[in-house]
Specification:
30% of the residues lie in helices and 23% in strands. The longest helix is centred in the C-terminal third of the chain and has 16 residues.
Length: 81
């Protein structure tokens, strides 16, 4: 797996989180974010269970441009462009 860095939250006080990458081999989106607090997790669980192999993360709205970039990149790769 080869990850390509897309961006990191410019307002992160530690410069370590949240972050967005794209997997160069599969075009999967890889996201690092803040772990969901109990309230958010409870709300998410209202729509179904969350397997032990998955997690809920929060990404700030200020990172929308990075998420668009990674999604656009993934669409281009899947279309073979």
């Amino acid at each position: 797996m080869a990850l390509r860095f897309i961006g990191i939250d410019p307002d992160s006080d530690t410069g370590q989180c949240p972050t967005v990458w794209v997997d160069e081999d599969t075009a999967d989106v890889v996201i690092q974010g803040w772990q969901a607090d109990e309230s958010l997790l409870a709300q998410c669980l209202e729509t179904g269970s969350i397997p032990d192999t998955e997690g809920v993360v929060r990404i700030p709205a200020r990172m929308v441009a990075m998420l668009r970039e990674v999604c656009d990149d993934t669409e281009r790769r899947r279309a073979g462009l």
